[in-house]
Write a structure and sequence with these properties.
The complex is a heterodimer of chains A (269) and B (532). Chain A is built from 10 helices and 10 strands. Chain B is elongated. The relative contact order of chain B is 0.10. The chains are: A alpha/beta (269), B alpha/beta (532).
Chain lengths: 269, 532
């Protein structure tokens, strides 16, 4: 019998390898994501982060092991129906270039058979929610938007079918630092306000530390550590220690350039 | 140039030619695209099928358009015979059907290749996104893949349209009326106005269809209702043009056929004039290949045309021995009767293959007869497109032991001039061609009688054998056209010019050969006994 309150997403000894086809292998990964949790997966490129996300949405099937959503093996569910209950923010947004902003956002409820009037209302609400301008952005096409605007549309699209789970693959990776900070914080508000369970892939440990409740660290297809920032700080794994030390080293190096807050700008110390 | 009657004549033919051209092109395009598009969709996830399809389509593309069209005629003739025997279904292997099938095949490569390439070239990230948002594979195809591949697919369709409209001009020899009729008849009768007119009309038509498809593509891509409406509206207008002339197609019209050389165009016009004078409608099917036209007559696609006894005897009925003229004609009539074709009568002249060379050169080499040619293997010979493949040539070569340095195929009208300037030494010309005398060529004797007689005879299709009205209308022509008149007519028609259309020459020929009446006897006319 399953646990009375099963984790929202559970990877149980999941292994997946690829032949010559694209994709980074994962080996024997076990990881649980609790309801309402914001989990970040960090690691270098090729560590298997995206593969883990694709397994969760049943975009690919594991070679060995089991992936459960709300306690049910994803193999027992219709993959199309399953994906419609999950919101996904793809790498670089992956907005459909031939659809307007409103159509991109409205695609998931449309597929679910929601009435047109309801879709329009939902699209308006989501455009406000991700802080886009309904008047000027609604009818535009992806190539007419800035990078930050595209990512906001991608988040809105992921939320349009009222999912309880959101999977994000480097959602803010290609943005300038200001946009990235603003978007990240905006998303955390949405995550809490809508009671979402979020899994976000990032290669930036600082972003993971600032936004998420728990962090999972991947290296070469294996899960090397998972826990809160405090738990990770206690890890003896060299890679984890190196990773967590990065923000501190950056602050130290930056302090040499930047005047302390309150000092007159431009004046030499 | 201002008052050249050939322009207005070309314009008068335009509705028929353009309508037929559009009809065959658009049907072929619809069929070709309708076949290739689902095939391309099937092949998109099957690499083996994809390579096979593209390879086959590419091979088809390397077959010259004219050859592909020519191949479909015997193929359909065979299929038609099978269907008749097997299921009692009869269909015509002539004209529209073979042209549509060949052109459809021709149109498949660009549609196949562009659809496959267009679908293949979509960013895999977008395909993954389409799966991720919860699209089924069908939804993915219709909502993401096809819209994104649309510009490439439409570009393929546009290429196919331009190819098909251009290649459709070559469907004239297999009996499909098209803008190619201008080009083929213009080339035969030195009517450059017609050739130019046909080329320009086909080019403009191709550009118009291409522009309409471009409008539709842009309208779809940019969601411009205006462009889409303009494109589709224009397309519908074209389809209306296609259907309009098809509706009031008068039944009971006599179809007059002509082969691909000048004399045939003149004689077809002559036959049509007589039928019209008797108060009936005619439809012309000109520029038909030698074997196509006889099969078309047998199948009832052509009602009447002029052929030559020797051609029928050796090429159609495959006889090897050559009896004397009268016996051959009688035997031919019986043989044809057995297959339902009526040899209604002979026109009076003979148009035989003859070997000819310049008087000067013949004298210099001491050549008087074909037998003398055997001693001069250094000479080159030219003939029309079919001569060297005909049994008469094989018979002639064997009878005299001939061998030439080179055998060249030439457009018949250019052959005589080529001999006159020394481009070739000997030509296989036509005895009824006025150009023999014009270029001062001498006809070499055939002492062994290896070349059969070629009396011009009127053939009538099995369906019209008991058609007294037709027989009566044509009766005045039998025995009326003597060789001198025909030569003059051919020379006149081949030289071109404003008043040298086959119709004008046919009217002239009719007047020129008016039987001498006691009141006004003309020296040029020769009275002959009527049909055998």
């Amino acid at each position: 019998m399953p646990d009375p309150a099963p984790p929202t997403i559970a990877f149980e000894h999941v292994t997946k390898s690829f032949g010559h086809a694209g994709g980074s292998a994962v080996a024997d990964v076990s990881l649980e994501v609790a309801r309402g949790e914001f989990l970040s997966i960090v690691g270098a490129s090729g560590a298997g982060k995206t593969t883990l996300l694709r397994l969760a949405a049943r975009l690919i099937a594991p070679d060995r092991g089991t992936v459960r959503i709300d306690g049910t093996d994803v193999r027992e569910r219709d993959p199309v129906a399953l994906r419609r209950t999950i919101g996904i923010v793809f790498q670089n947004g992956a907005l459909f270039p031939h659809m307007s902003v409103a159509e991109n956002i409205g695609i998931t409820p449309k597929l679910a058979g929601v009435r047109a009037a309801e879709i329009a209302a939902r699209v308006d609400r989501l455009i406000d929610l991700v802080r886009l301008d309904g008047g000027s952005h609604r009818a535009r096409f992806p190539h007419e938007l800035s990078g930050g605007e595209r990512q906001r549309v991608a988040v809105a699209r992921a939320l349009a079918n009222n999912p309880s789970i959101v999977l994000m693959d480097e959602p803010f990776g290609a943005l300038d630092p200001l946009t990235r900070d603003a978007l990240g914080e905006d998303y955390v508000h949405l995550h809490r306000g809508l009671s979402l369970t979020t899994v976000m892939i990032t290669h930036d440990i600082t972003e993971a530390l600032l936004l998420s409740d728990r962090i999972a660290v991947m290296q070469a297809g294996r899960l090397v550590a998972a826990g809160t920032p405090a738990e990770l700080a206690a890890s003896v794994d060299a890679y984890v220690a190196e990773l967590l030390g990065t923000p501190r080293r950056q602050i130290a190096r930056l302090a040499a350039f930047l005047p302390p807050p309150g000092a007159p700008s431009g004046a030499p110390p | 140039m201002t008052a050249d009657p050939r322009w207005s004549e070309a314009l008068q033919l335009l509705p028929d030619y353009l309508g037929s051209h559009l009809r065959v092109s658009l049907t072929a395009l619809a069929l070709g695209a309708g076949l290739s598009f689902p095939l391309a969709l099937k092949a998109r996830h099957r690499p083996l099928l994809r390579s096979v399809l593209l390879a086959v389509a590419s091979v088809v593309q390397t077959v010259p358009g004219l050859a592909l069209l020519a191949l479909f005629y015997p193929l359909l003739l065979f299929a038609s015979a099978l269907a008749m025997r097997g299921a009692g279904i009869s269909f015509s292997a002539f004209g529209f059907l073979p042209a549509v099938l060949a052109l459809a095949l021709y149109s498949m490569l660009p549609v196949l290749r562009n659809t496959i390439t267009g679908l293949h070239g979509i960013d895999p990230g977008l395909i993954e996104a389409a799966r991720g948002v919860g699209m089924t594979s069908r939804q993915r195809l219709t909502m993401v893949e096809l819209p994104l591949a649309l510009p490439v697919i439409m570009a393929g369709l546009r290429t196919a349209a331009v190819w098909v409209i251009g290649t459709a001009t070559l469907s004239t020899p297999i009996g499909q009326t098209s803008l190619g009729n201008y080009i083929f008849s213009g080339l035969q009768t030195q009517n450059w106005v017609f050739v130019l007119f046909g080329c320009a009309a086909a080019a403009i038509l191709a550009l118009v269809v291409d522009a309409l498809l471009a409008l539709i593509a842009q309208g779809l891509a940019q969601r411009s209702r205006m462009r889409l409406a303009l494109g589709i509206g224009g397309g519908l207008a074209l389809i209306a043009v296609v259907l309009a002339p098809a509706l009031p197609h008068p039944r009971g019209t006599y179809v007059v056929g002509a082969k691909t050389f000048t004399e045939q165009y003149v004689l077809a016009a002559l036959l049509a004039d007589r039928i019209k004078a008797a108060g009936h409608d005619t439809t012309m099917r000109e520029g038909l290949g030698s074997s196509v036209i006889f099969a078309a007559l047998k199948a009832g696609d052509v009602d009447v045309y002029v052929d030559y006894s020797g051609t029928l005897w050796t090429n159609t009925l495959h006889h090897r021995e050559i009896p004397p003229r009268g016996d051959l004609l009688a035997a031919l009539k019986d043989d044809l009767e057995a297959s339902g074709v009526t040899l209604a009568g002979k026109l009076g002249f003979e148009n035989a293959y003859v070997l000819a060379m310049t008087r000067q050169r013949a004298a210099a080499l001491g050549i008087r007869s074909i037998a003398d040619l055997a001693h001069h293997p250094e000479l080159g010979i030219a003939g029309d497109y079919e001569f060297f493949a005909r049994p008469e040539w094989a018979a002639l070569r064997d009878a005299y032991g001939l061998s030439f340095r080179a055998e060249r195929q030439m457009q018949p009208d250019f052959m005589y001039a080529a001999a006159a300037v020394g481009e070739v030494d000997v030509i296989a010309g036509y005895s009824s061609d006025g150009q023999i005398a014009q270029h001062d060529l001498v006809v070499l004797d055939d002492p062994k009688g290896a070349i059969p007689p070629y009396d011009a005879v009127v053939l009538i299709s099995p369906g019209r054998r008991r058609d007294d009205a037709l027989q009566k209308a044509l009766a005045p022509l039998y025995g009326r056209i003597d060789i001198t008149a025909m030569r003059e007519a051919n020379l006149h028609a081949a030289q071109g010019g404003g008043d040298a259309s086959p119709q004008a020459v046919a009217r002239w020929l009719w007047k020129r050969t008016a039987p001498a009446s006691p009141a006004a006897s003309s020296s040029g006319s020769i009275r002959r006994s009527s049909a055998p």
